UniProtKB/TrEMBL annotation:
Species for this entry: Mugilogobius chulae (yellowstripe goby)
Keywords: Repeat, TPR repeat
The UniProt record lists the keyword NADP: no
Signal peptide: none
Entry coiled-coil feature ranges: none
Gene3D superfamilies: Tetratricopeptide repeat domain
Top-level taxon: Eukaryota
Record-level GO BP terms: protein folding
GO terms of molecular function: Hsp70 protein binding; Hsp90 protein binding
Name recorded for this polypeptide: Cns1/TTC4 wheel domain-containing protein
Amino acid sequence: MANDSEEDGWDALMDKFKTEKYKYGFNEETWEEEMDRIPLFMKEVPDVIDPEKYPELTALQTMIHDEDRTPEEKAEDLKNEGNSYFKKKKYKQALISYTAALVVKCDSVDLNTVIYSNRAAAHFYLGNMRSALKDATIAKKLKPDHLKALIRGAQCCIELKNFAEALKWCDEGLKLHPTDKKLQELRASADKHKRAADRDARKAKLKEKKLLGEKEILLSAIKDRGIKLFPSTRPQRGSDSEDEEGDSSSRGVSQLSLDGLSSQEVTGAQVYLNQEDGALYWPVLFLYPEHQQSDFISAFCENHCFSDHLSVMFGEELPPWDTDQKYSPSNLLLFFEDELKETLYQVDVQTSLLQVQQHQRYFVKAGTPSFIILVKDSPYCKQYLSGKKVKRL
């Protein structure tokens, strides 16, 4: 029976509870949030577990993954954890859990097969197709008849557009699971895509062959005319092969190649052989250094004279930059530049493009013949030509 002193102590303790708040209880304003941190009442597992914020959950995980458990038990729990994340479509977290399960290195072939297959699925939904295929391949190696691994491997191959390999996965799977509808669907899809890809490849090859044939014909036409493309490797200035009036056509023709016909201009135009008249049509660039302007003719027939185009370009409507109206057809001088000799050649505007191209010192650069136009007897013309070596064609 309690004595008077004990009763007095109990009464004092009860009086204290009535007057003082319990320090470790839930806060009246945040009690719902605090309760949600307790594992028993959690609605879902947080993505990132902070030990200070979730001490109870941290303790539970420590118990689950403690050293006293077998590797199989640890791997199984981590796999289940990954599955839980996967069902919630939290594929990154699932990937981490599956990877942790594999790090445990348990000896169960069946369990490891499932984990690799599940991780392949997580990779698949994250768009990591090559990693997914790698995991599916490992799972299939561990257990060749694992249906999910076979399905996932086929899906990855289809996504990677390796349809032939997808067919192999499907055929291998259907030997073991001949009635599986998913494998049957995947095989039909892979076969359809493979047929389409093969057809497109054949078309592309035929198109490439046709274009190559047309290029070869074009090169032959250029070579037959004695037109020289700008050499890819310039000869050294002053060498014996660069006699000023020497015939350099053989050197130029030897540089003929498909690359030499590719225009580097922004227009993208290119020389072509007209099947109707048998003439070459070139993209031609005219430069006006006085005004830092240019004109571009995308299809200049080799048999046309320069005057034919100049009369149109500077006919009734003059360019807006010619404020002094100096650029009339009869008042223009035409030049091409021999970069190797640092020489300007004056061209008679009544000359055809082909005649200029057949000159021994003319090279077509970047697939686009270019010419300089100056105003006759203008101060700029005199200044531009001053100190330069100029020759008439």
